[in-house]
Specification:
The complex is a heterodimer of chains A (378) and B (602). Helix content of chain A is 10%, strand content 40%. With 378 residues, chain A is mainly beta. Chain A has 3 domains: 16-51 and 155-300; 57-127, OB fold (Dihydrolipoamide Acetyltransferase, E2P); 318-375, SH3 type barrels, CATH 2.30.30. In chain B, the strands form 6 sheets. Chain B has an 8-stranded mixed beta sheet, sandwiched between helices. In chain B, helix 2 links the parallel strand 7 (98-103) and strand 8. In chain B, helix 8 (263-278) crosses helix 16 (468-479), helix 12 packs parallel to helix 14 (430-441) and helix 15 packs antiparallel against helix 16 (468-479). Chain B is globular and about 70 Å long. The chains are: A mainly beta (378), B alpha/beta (602). Chains A and B meet through strand 6 and strand 11 of A and helix 3, helix 4, helix 5, helix 9 and helix 11 of B.
Chain lengths: 378, 602
């Protein structure tokens, strides 16, 4: 028995669309100043807000240095709490025997005295504040100003979400270097014209190609897949938990399909090909746990967003839906759903699970657990 | 209302993703599980009200049982014929559970005691800062700022000891001025459980930056740990500070008839109740997608650890990183390509909801589960240890030695091993769950094995706080699925040499077995069967009474049976790859663990 009623997809698909309206909240880590007004048109690299992070704290045990009891340091301090000090400036001094024995303590850094403890003898210094500037990330319109915190930018754009990435936010001209989604991205395909570009390959990207991209100054690499061992070699250690985006690497790397040798989905490839030559905003940040974040490639249209949904429609799976199979033995293949039997069925492992039947591109019909498919989503 | 009058109990567990409700009723004098309902947790947007999920889960229980439990948005009380409940209780780990940062002086002494207190209270310990943690002061401050915990626990110094160091660490906390995770609008709760003499200085230091609660020193002397007051303060602050900030909890709190407990603390509560009631030593494990929790009660002493990055979906790549591919593949009964397997594991990490479709894929995933369990248990055994830094009188000449860091979790003394989490509870064959538990934990002597049917230990834990009898009855009748008993000798392993003679008094006729080192043998013994077993170890082997000393005991069966595991402790692996494959196949065949290799087919 089959049901042709629409059902919720268990695995929401990645968004791959040439027309989306996206809202990006840009928030400072601490309250600061917002530099743009509601309704302003901003460019990706434009600073929209800034703040200063409190400087680093340094500690110095003055009682230790002066060889006195902590409770006595008040008698020797020549600087008080909240005073600013220069590096090397005298903080405390002690004189004994009519000045014959003179000892002093100098400030270890430039900053402010945060606290003086007469219990421990410890003096805490706060270094110079660290300036932080927040850019818009995408070309768009300021649709919300969060007082002292940041803004929300809205952009009409093309959006391609990847499955996994590393590296933070980058910008650059999209440059597709391969002829088809099945073609690997190898080092020979990269040349000096890739500088500052977001380079796009088809199937896997080789380790040599990633190194070459960095050498040439490319800002990001996008490909269908990467071999796990190549990623480990590149990072210098295996990735344990999929929370990325903070790596100290000079490039963002995004894969759209996964690990191994997997061709990029045709639709993803076609959209990226159509955007070749345009300026893209790219983020490699990935978080698989609660509050899922996927890496992304965004190309703003330059037009104001009007009449389009900001949120994607709720994922529905029904007969005829295009799905990506996301577990062996059919990993990476695209198929069309042809039946959604409501009763659980026993699979090879003897587990009884809800399944669906799908037709692969070569016409073969397969039965797979519903949790092992991903809806191809606009 | 007395315990005897309670006829119906409704309990919920508000998890990060799902809220689970169970209904327990007294039937013919015994408490039994009647139904279980679940609904998505509604702490996050767009609902931002945990009670929506609770009401939805309870509504499902109503549908399943035909009982009327809700009157609009109120839980009907007390229970009448087909309506209402006498008790409503709840646990919660929604929003990522209770996250604590621990500050102590010496990492392996007061800081470790504080870590044990926090874990026992059901917390996730985000980091432990100590004088000897190898970090510079500014690095500790940066770390405190980054983490945004729900609360900070400060310990350090024995009562009457030097107070300067703990104040120094507290000054760093004050300088960091950390903000609480659930909003910057309230002051971060900080617990001080260190040297009593330092209290005035601590209060002065933290006065302006935090909401300080002072409690008994958790390590008043080097020889004594006193964790319970700290655990209670942690749970109280969790309820009144942290939960009060979580969406909808201010509505949920007045509904419940007892304090809402952090989910892991509730699991600890039921484990302690069981261990105490039956006078047994228990180990429990819950392996999830992101974390693995291990609980143990040995000689009445409770310990809990959380291995935050050992799990089978989100954290699966970390299991690979920590265990190594060779350790994972050693459990797979054929030779497979390492590169391919690593890619598959990573693909599971990025698409965590997928399940194995092929037998080999299942075997790899169960191999990863064994390694995650093994690593989590190693961490547990190391934390569930005697106090470090204790000096003991060695001889009359006042010679002192540092006490050995011996774990109190002794496998030969373990009576019951309970596994929970999808990979164990929902393994296609129960024998697979039994093998994963045995391989990972390597129990010694006689050990009963069980899996949790639907993970209702949290609800039973909070119930144990108010109605212990109901909780323990449901635990054994409806929560546990007995797998059977494992009998494993220890001693000098000599492949093929006889190590044990076992006599099983089966109802039809006694079953006599001679067991050699290296063998794994299954004796069928049903779920409700208990039989007398005499095991006689040979050649220096030990099954709990000492070398070559026989043990006569009653053994309980289960869905798998009596498993006699003479593979040695620790498990021995052949060096040759072909021998390894053959060995693993033999083990799996002995327990009919996978289709196509049933023991009866051989």
């Amino acid at each position: 028995m089959t049901s042709d009623k629409a059902v919720h997809a268990y695995t929401p698909g990645l968004r791959v669309t040439d027309t989306a309206v996206l809202r990006k909240v840009r928030r400072l880590p601490l309250p600061g100043q917002v530099h743009v007004e509601l309704g302003a048109e901003v460019k990706a690299a434009e600073v929209v807000a800034s703040t200063e992070l409190p400087g680093r704290v340094h500690t110095l045990n003055v009682a230790h240095e002066l060889n006195c009891q902590p409770a006595e340091i008040g008698n020797f301090m020549v600087k008080a709490e909240s005073d600013t000090v220069r590096r090397g400036e005298i903080l405390a001094e002690s004189k004994a025997l009519w000045g014959l024995f003179y000892s002093f303590v100098k400030a270890p850094i430039e900053g402010t005295i945060e606290s003086i403890s007469t219990t421990t003898g410890q003096v805490l210094f706060r270094g110079e504040p660290i300036p932080v500037e927040l850019d818009a990330y995408v070309d768009g319109t300021v649709v919300e100003v969060h007082a002292d915190e940041g803004v929300t930018i809205e952009a009409q754009c093309a959006l391609v979400q990847g499955i996994f990435g590393i590296g933070g936010e980058r910008y650059g001209e999209l440059k597709v270097l391969v002829e088809s989604p099945n073609q690997p991205l190898t080092a020979e395909l990269l040349d000096e014209t890739c500088k500052d570009c977001v380079v796009v390959g088809g199937s896997l990207v080789t380790l040599e190609a990633v190194h070459r991209a960095i050498e040439l100054g490319a800002s990001a690499v996008v490909a269908g897949s990467i071999q796990s061992q190549d990623l480990d070699s590149f990072m210098g250690e295996p990735i344990g938990v999929a929370i990325t985006g903070q790596e100290a690497i000079p490039i963002a790397l995004i894969v759209t399909e996964g690990f191994g040798e997997l061709a990029m989905a045709q639709r993803t490839f076609s959209i990226l090909q159509g955007l070749s030559g345009k300026r893209a905003s790219v983020s490699g940040a990935t978080q698989i746990r609660a509050g899922v974040i996927r890496p992304e490639i965004i190309v703003a249209s330059g037009r104001r967003a009007e009449g389009l949904l900001a949120e994607p429609p709720v994922s529905q799976m029904s007969i005829g839906s295009q799905v990506r199979l996301i577990r062996a033995p059919h990993f990476g293949q695209i198929a069309e759903v042809i039946a959604l039997p409501p009763e659980p069925a026993e699979i090879e492992t003897e587990a009884k699970v809800r399944v669906l039947q799908a037709r692969l591109a070569d016409g073969t019909v397969v039965t797979v657990p519903r949790s092992n498919v991903e809806l191809m989503q606009e | 209302m007395t315990e005897r009058d309670i006829t119906r109990v409704l309990a919920t567990d508000c998890g990060s993703t799902t809220t689970k409700a169970i209904l327990i009723e007294k039937q013919e004098g015994q408490y039994r599980l009647v139904a279980r309902g679940e609904a998505p947790t509604t702490v996050e947007a767009p609902y931002e009200d945990v009670t929506r999920g609770v009401l939805n889960a309870v509504a499902e229980v109503e549908e399943l049982t035909g009982r009327r439990l809700l009157d609009g948005e109120a839980i009907i009380r007390p229970a009448a014929a087909d309506t209402g409940t006498d008790l409503y209780l709840s646990t919660s780990s929604a929003g990522g559970g209770l996250q604590i940062m621990v500050v102590g002086l010496v990492r392996r002494m007061t800081a470790e005691s504080a870590e044990r207190a926090a874990l026992g209270a059901g917390a996730i310990v985000m980091d432990v800062l100590a004088l000897d943690d190898g970090r510079l002061p500014h690095e500790r401050i940066e770390r405190m700022r980054q983490l945004r915990p729900d609360m900070i626990l400060i310990s350090g110094g024995i009562d009457g000891g030097e107070e300067r160091r703990v104040v120094e660490m507290t000054e760093l906390v004050a300088a960091a001025n950390p903000t609480a995770r659930l909003g910057a609008k309230y002051r971060l709760p900080i617990i001080y459980a260190g040297n009593v003499d330092a209290r005035p200085a601590i209060e002065k230091t933290l006065d302006e930056v935090a909401d300080l609660t002072v409690t008994d020193n958790l390590r008043p002397t080097m020889e004594r740990e006193h964790l319970q007051p700290t655990r209670l303060v942690v749970q109280d602050l969790f309820l009144h500070h942290v939960m009060a900030q979580a969406p909808g909890y201010s509505r949920l709190v007045p509904w419940t008839d007892a304090d809402i407990m952090p989910t892991p603390a509730a699991v600890g509560s039921i484990m302690q109740a069981i261990a105490e009631d039956r006078n047994i030593n228990v180990v429990g494990v819950d392996i999830g997608g992101a974390t693995t929790d291990v609980f143990s009660v040995f000689s009445g002493q409770f310990n809990r650890t959380v291995s935050a990055n050992l799990g089978l979906s989100y954290s699966i790549s970390n299991v690979l990183a920590e265990a190594g591919i060779d350790n994972i593949l050693r459990w797979v009964p054929e030779h497979i390509d390492r590169g391919w397997t690593v890619n598959q594991i990573r693909n599971k990490m990025i698409r965590p909801t997928t399940i194995p479709e092929q037998l080999l894929d299942l075997q790899v995933e169960q191999g990863i589960a064994r390694e995650a369990l093994r690593l989590a248990f190693d961490q547990h055994r190391s934390l569930a240890a005697g106090l470090k830094g204790v000096q003991r009188v060695r001889d009359i000449a006042d010679a002192f030695v540092q006490a050995a860091d011996e774990s109190i979790v002794r496998m030969m003394d373990l009576d019951l091993l309970v596994g929970s989490g999808g990979v164990l509870s929902h393994a296609p064959r129960r024998s697979q769950a039994a093998m994963m538990l045995i391989d990972a934990f390597q129990p010694e002597g006689f050990t009963q094995l069980a899996v949790d049917s639907i993970f209702m230990m949290p609800q039973l834990g909070v119930l144990a706080e108010v109605h212990r009898q109901a909780a323990t009855e449901v635990f054994f009748r409806d929560c546990l699925i007995p797998l059977g008993t494992c009998l494993a000798p220890t001693g000098r392993f000599r492949e093929g040499r006889k190590c044990l003679h076992v006599s099983v008094q089966l109802p039809d006729a006694p079953h006599e077995l001679d067991i050699n080192w290296g063998e794994l043998v299954l004796v069928e013994l049903g779920e409700n069967q208990s039989v007398a077993v005499t095991a006689d170890p040979l050649g220096g082997a030990d099954i709990g009474a000492g070398r070559n000393r026989a043990v006569a005991t009653e053994v309980t069966g289960g869905q798998v049976g009596l498993i006699i595991d003479a593979r040695g402790r620790p498990l021995a692996w052949p060096d040759d790859e072909a021998d390894r494959v053959r060995k693993v196949q033999q083990w799996q065949t002995a327990l009919s663990a996978y289709p196509g290799i049933d023991a009866n087919d051989q």
